[in-house]
Design a protein that fits this description.
Helix content: 10-25%
Number of helices: 1
Strand order of the largest sheet: 2-8-7-4-5
Order of helices and strands: HEEEEEEEE
Structural class: alpha+beta
């Protein structure tokens, strides 16, 4: 294999890796109904991970309210049981291998 072929293969792998890391996201809007189970809709993760919901009423990550495991790829209709209906904003963090790979803050509808 020539040096040119090796460089091309390395560039292809690097491009693929950067595309894969962009595959982590929350597809639903920015508002959620105030329920004990928050419906996040579609969550996409590059690998199996976990969604964590935290209080975000003061504009910073507060108390952990609930978690839900997700699989690699598209996870339709993700729902997280938070116990008590939140009255203030929350933030969802998608973690893969302990690292936050996506986040979305939500306004809560009363």
């Amino acid at each position: 294999m020539s040096i040119k072929s090796i460089a091309l293969a390395a560039a292809t792998i690097a491009a693929t890796a950067s595309v894969a890391s962009a595959d982590n996201y929350f597809a639903f809007g920015e508002r959620l109904d105030s329920n004990s189970v928050l419906e996040l809709g579609l969550v996409r993760a590059e690998s199996a991970g976990i969604v964590e919901i935290y209080d975000f009423s003061k504009g910073e990550v507060g108390q952990l309210l609930g978690t839900e495991a997700v699989n690699a790829g598209a996870n339709a209709d993700v729902k997280v049981n938070v116990g008590i209906r939140p009255k203030q904003d929350v933030i969802a963090l998608l973690k893969v291998d302990g690292q936050t790979v996506a986040q979305r803050d939500y306004d809560i509808n009363d």
